Description:
Blueprint: E1 2-7, H1 14-23, H2 28-35, E2 43-52, E3 55-64, E4 71-72, H3 73-82, H4 87-108, E5 116-117, H5 123-138, E6 141-146, E7 149-152, E8 155-158, E9 161-164, H6 168-174, E10 181-183, H7 193-202, E11 205-206, E12 212-221, E13 231-239, E14 244-255, H8 262-272, E15 277-285, E16 289-298, H9 303-313, E17 320-328, E18 331-338, E19 341-350, E20 353-359, H10 361-371, H11 375-389
Parallel strand pairs: 1-6, 6-11, 7-10
Antiparallel strand pairs: 1-13, 2-3, 4-5, 8-9, 12-13, 14-16, 14-17, 15-16, 18-19, 19-20
Helix pairs in contact: 1-5, 2-5, 3-4, 4-5, 4-6, 4-7, 6-7, 10-11
Amino acid sequence: MTTAYFDCQAGASGNMILGALLDAGLDKTRLLAELRKLDLPPWELSDEHVQRGLIQARLVDFDIEDRGHHHPYTDIDARIAAADLEPGIKKEARQIFRRLAEAEAHIHGTQVNEVEFHEVGAADSVLDVVGAALAFHLMGIDHVVVSPINTGSGWVDTAHGRLPVPAPATTRLLAGSGAVAYGSDVKFELLTPTGAAVLTHAADAYGPLPPMRVLQTGYGAGTARLAIPNVLRVTLGQAAETHQADTATVIETNIDDMNPEAYEYVSARLFAAGALDVWTAPIVMKGGRPATQLCALASGDTANTLIDLILAETTTLGVRTHQVHRTKLPRHAFSVTTPYGDVRVKASYLHGTLRDAAPEAADCRRIAAEQGVPWRDVYDAARAAGRAAAPPGPDSEN
């Protein structure tokens, strides 16, 4: 598994992300060939090595004819959708711009389809976003970790007027993502909305550099000369341990006035909306009142959706959230054939060795009812078949 770690001590922007990845070995010829598939005005890539403080970095930018024009979100989305790119790359790029549009719509009190981009809407930002999606694919990056992000401080002049740093759209993109952000005495917009959108979409975890066997590093330069080296560093490597780690958001609330019959329905809605887990626990609130604590675990940008759902579907007046770090064993899902039927199985590995092969309980229940046999017989047969058929672990010598 190839991990990319983005060190954001000077923030991040779309062109800094692309510059860092090019500096770390991204094939420029293949990148440009793919980007030419977009229906955009004529453009050229400006690419040079510059000095930022004591660090040499890659400064990239797109020189295009209509820089600065307004672009409706619907037009940007249609252009990306129509491009002759791999479906997965188009999906990632469209999701990033969708998040940008949702952030702008929220800030300005309008609908997503009515959003017109200004600073992030020029064709160069389309190229930055699609270029980042292409880069992750071309470089085989399948795990992204992002450091705490320096947003800078002060004010930035935009098409909407003067705005505080970080810009409102940027803070909206950070909200619920799990990202850790901090301000500094650098009076400059270090983290742009495009940079925030790409990193929070791609990130699987946030925090310090994870244990890895370092393969390559790259530096992407920002345009401004600042008191600190204005660079974004990316470090590429292979995981040095078999444990997988990420962060998630716990959403919880205490409820003492809701019909208990509603919890099953609410839990199902939360799972359908992307919750990693949902659970309840009996508690005692002030005055000795018995109550229920409802909790949901969210990853990525699903936290806000789950919060809205809890506020809409329960009687609570508010929720609490906090970030948690998760350590997970590598897993592999597959199906096995038993005397009773096919059952899905999930194998887990510890230090490269098979730890267990757990059958899907729902499959076992269904087959046991259909065959008129004990559930335990189906489960044991599937577990034995799963352990026999499980592939070697990620660090196995086999």
